[in-house]
What we know:
Layout: H1 4-29, H2 34-65, H3 70-88
Amino acid sequence: METDLVRENIKKRLNRIEGQVRGIQRMIDNDESCDNILIQIAAVRAAINKVGGMVLQNYAHSCIKNKINKDEYEKSVDDLIETIIKYTK
């Protein structure tokens, strides 16, 4: 991770997501309606995607910014593209 601030922000978001998942488990235990449960699942999915985007953005900045010569830069871009493809599958 680039900075402690980015790391802490990601950790806070992951803790919030963990709480959302526990909330979904309680909803299931309490026989909440399926549509309410699915809405919460969609919210968790969106939150995970946001965190993934933050990690990916940080990776892109730190990976490419630290490469100086052309060969390393091209490999960094290739690595980044490969990572994006894996993340979006």
